[in-house]
């Protein structure tokens, strides 16, 4: 089972032009900022929005191909969706909710209820089959929604922010449960999320969508090692600068200068880990090759680490200890000097 989708769709002034593939038994997470086109992509795959050009193919069978005049209606697609708010019917029991999708596809009442009961048992909710959604916890409701989706034996499962409705305390346990249940489904799985932890825990690969385009795809480790946009860099917590390499120096688009250990030529990315940025109240002694004047714009404490956002010719985020923050006595608006060893700068072509 596999999904091969090349999608072009226009909504007002926004155009989505994306290419996504998912193998059977694989989970792919789609990440991107708000308004990037993630939900539009899902709606196209589910058949809620027809595409203008391209082709959506599942297991070699076309679901949407404007050129060939093919459009399979949503209810006839072998696609199931788990929505962010689960969309359970409040007047139906958990058993009836799970049976609903089967009944909608023509399954007889007795068989639908039997299969629904089996699925509720598989997700650990056999004792809650007669409970209505208001009597279920967030995690239980999520499992009912997943059982309803999988009971129809889809070939593609779409999960739209499946953990977003849960509080932080429940999210970890439900995430582990969701991973276990997904492992029993051999179809293609596509997950939309804003949380890199969800992507790391649930997905085999990630696809980054920005402004309606796929800007990067691969394993999370690959994407983290070589981010290709500011959004991805922020997502994985690194500094990413773009510029042009010449004569051993990268000149950034803002006019700053970066000297890496290995010279590069032409358009380049320079990636710097926040913990590699050292801060000083005055220009550091010696002759470090990368020293920049900066202004502190924000200070954010994270447990035993402090992230200091800097503005200047080379804008950076530095990660220091609380003791270093106290020693420097930093406040937003203060002037500092930032330094990075050349060997701590990772470069690659833009």
What does this entry show, briefly?
The protein has 350 residues and is α+β, with helices and mostly antiparallel strands. The protein has nine helices and 21 strands.
**Overall strand count:** 21
CATH structural architecture of the largest domain: 3-Layer(aba) Sandwich
Assign the structural class, choosing from mainly alpha, mainly beta, alpha/beta, alpha+beta, or little secondary structure.
Answer: alpha+beta
**CATH topology term of the largest domain:** Rossmann fold
Task: Tell me the overall shape.
Answer: elongated
**Sheet with most strands:** 6 strands, mixed
The proportion of strand residues reads 35-45%
CATH class group of the largest domain: Alpha Beta
Terminal CA distance reads 34 Å
| CATH homologous superfamily (4th level) name of the largest domain | P-loop containing nucleotide triphosphate hydrolases
Uncertain residue ranges: none
Query: Please, what is the average pLDDT?
Result: 91
Q: Give, in order, the helices and strands.
A: EEEHEEEEHHHEHEHEEHHEEEEEEEEHEE
Total of DSSP H or I helical runs spanning 4+ residues: 9
Radius of gyration: 25 Å
Model description:
The chain is of the alpha+beta class. The protein folds into two domains: 2-225, P-loop containing nucleotide triphosphate hydrolases (Rossmann fold, 3-Layer(aba) Sandwich), CATH 3.40.50; 237-349, Beta Barrel (OB fold (Dihydrolipoamide Acetyltransferase, E2P)), CATH 2.40.50. The protein has nine helices and 21 strands. The chain has helices spanning 38-46, 94-104, 109-122, 138-151, 168-182, 196-202, 220-225, 230-236, 322-328, and strands spanning 2-11, 14-23, 27-31, 53-58, 61-65, 70-71, 79-82, 156-160, 188-192, 205-210, 213-218, 239-246, 249-252, 257-258, 266-272, 278-280, 291-302, 305-312, 316-320, 335-339, 345-349. The strands form four sheets. A six-stranded mixed β-sheet has the order 7-8-9-3-10-11, with helices on both faces. The longest helix is centred in the middle third of the chain and has 15 residues, at 168-182. 35% of the residues are buried. The mean pLDDT is 91.
């Amino acid at each position: 089972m596999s999904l091969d989708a090349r999608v072009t769709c226009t909504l007002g002034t926004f155009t989505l032009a994306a290419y996504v593939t998912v193998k059977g038994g694989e989970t792919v997470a789609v990440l991107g900022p708000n308004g990037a086109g993630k939900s539009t992509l899902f709606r196209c795959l589910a058949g809620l929005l027809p595409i203008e050009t391209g082709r959506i193919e599942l297991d070699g069978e076309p679901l949407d191909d404007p050129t060939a005049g093919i459009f399979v209606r949503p209810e006839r697609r072998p696609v199931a969706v788990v929505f962010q708010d689960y969309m359970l019917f409040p007047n139906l029991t958990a058993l009836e909710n799970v049976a609903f999708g089967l009944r909608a596809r023509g399954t007889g009442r007795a068989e639908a209820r039997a299969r629904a009961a089996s699925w509720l048992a598989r997700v650990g909710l056999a004792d809650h089959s007669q409970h209505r959604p208001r009597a279920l916890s967030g995690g239980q409701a999520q499992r009912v929604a997943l059982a309803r989706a999988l009971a129809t034996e889809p070939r593609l499962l779409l999960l739209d922010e499946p953990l977003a409705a849960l509080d932080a305390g429940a999210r970890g346990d439900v995430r582990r449960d969701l991973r276990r249940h997904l492992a029993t489904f051999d179809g293609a799985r596509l997950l939309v999320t804003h949380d890199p932890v969800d992507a790391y825990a649930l997905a085999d690969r990630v696809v980054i969508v920005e402004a309606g385009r796929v800007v990067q795809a691969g394993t999370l480790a690959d994407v983290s090692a070589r981010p290709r946009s500011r959004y991805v860099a922020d997502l994985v917590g690194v500094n990413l600068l773009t510029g042009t390499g010449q004569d051993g120096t990268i000149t950034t688009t803002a006019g700053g200068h970066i000297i890496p250990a290995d010279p590069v030529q032409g358009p380049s990315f320079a990636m710097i880990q926040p913990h590699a940025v050292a801060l000083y109240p005055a220009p550091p002694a010696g002759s470090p090759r990368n020293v920049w004047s900066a202004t502190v714009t924000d200070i954010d404490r994270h447990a035993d680490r402090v992230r200091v956002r800097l503005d200047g010719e080379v804008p950076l985020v530095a990660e220091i200890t609380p003791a270093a923050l106290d020693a420097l006595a930093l406040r937003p608006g203060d002037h500092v000097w930032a330094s990075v060893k050349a060997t701590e700068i990772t470069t690659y072509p833009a």
